[in-house]
Amino acid sequence: MTLFSDADILLRERQINESGAPQDRKRMEKRKLNALIALCESPNCRRQTLLAAFGEASKPCGNCDICDGKWALFNGAVAAQKLMSAIHRTSGRFFSGHLANLLAGRATEAIRRHGHDLLPTFGVGKEFKPAEWRSIFHQLHAADLIVQDQEDRDRWILTGAGRAVLKGEAPLTLRGEIPLSGGRKAGVLHTLEEIAVAQAEDLVPPSEAFTPVKPGGETAPLTANQNRLLAALKAKRLEVAREQKQPAFIIFHDKVLIEMARRRPKTNEDMRAIPGIGADKMARHGAVFLKVIANCDGDS
């Protein structure tokens, strides 16, 4: 079970910040916390998300709270665009709490000190509370739309998939709220009706941004040769992840590997056309995975 609250996150952040550990150790503990929160906040099957962190793929389990349909899902492209814009305008140097206050229009001491109350993004997300923006931040992290820079762990950057959502070229499903016993609800996001009302007063996002959607989408199953290639790609991803002491999904998300298996890219340009492969990931891992594809026998 993944039962936690925003207070739990804030408590752990305070424990890390107030500890006497060296700064490198504090940064490592914050990375671990972010990875754990991303797992808890993911709008995808719990089992799939957990196994993906270890480089393994699986079908939806059909038994967890996500698969059971207890969470409302909605089109979150506009919310993601606002948050990623805030990341870009603050040079990626601030974490979820600061960005949440920025978008919700809360002029905290830190917001004023950095002059962020003067940014165009200040207050553009008043339809959500700061706690809700933090949830969205962690969902974007779980979806591999935003990651910490490999060369500068204190900086958040957009992935290729994130830039596609920012430009309106890719859809995005986010998670709403879950009903609890006794009719109570976990306050992760407002109801879809409240979101729609708030959105109607915002001239920027299109109205279809908050149309409820069904989880998942029907896609043709992989062929035998494509599955063979996918297995080879996952094996290579696990090898690279272990060498770099990273979770496997940081190298490439499952959906990126599946697209590689479907498309069988042969050139750098072919590889870059796959959503989720930006310039940074292409430079770090592109050649290695192109070689795996070239060496794999059989056609899709």
Describe this structure in words.
The protein has 300 residues and is mainly α. The chain folds into two domains: 62-210, Orthogonal Bundle (Arc Repressor Mutant, subunit A), CATH 1.10.10.10; 224-295, DNA polymerase, domain 1. It has 14 helices and four strands. The strands form two sheets. A two-stranded antiparallel ribbon has the order 1-4. The protein has a two-stranded antiparallel sheet with strand order 2-3. Helix 10 (224-244) crosses helix 12 (254-263). It starts with 5 loop residues before the first helix and ends in a 5-residue tail after the last helix.
Please specify the SSE layout and strand pairing.
Layout: H1 6-18, H2 23-41, H3 46-52, E1 73-75, H4 77-89, H5 96-104, H6 109-113, H7 130-142, E2 146-148, E3 156-158, H8 160-166, E4 173-175, H9 192-200, H10 224-244, H11 248-251, H12 254-263, H13 268-272, H14 279-295
Antiparallel strand pairs: 1-4, 2-3
Structural class from helices and strands? mainly alpha
Low-confidence stretches: 178-218
How far apart the termini lie comes to 39 Å
Strand segment count: 4
How much of the residues is beta strand, in percent?
A: under 5%
Topology order in helix (H) and strand (E) letters = HHHEHHHHEEHEHHHHHH
Largest sheet: 2 strands, antiparallel
Strand order of the largest sheet: 1-4
Shape: globular
CATH T-level topology of the largest domain: Arc Repressor Mutant, subunit A
**CATH first level of the largest domain: which class?**
Mainly Alpha
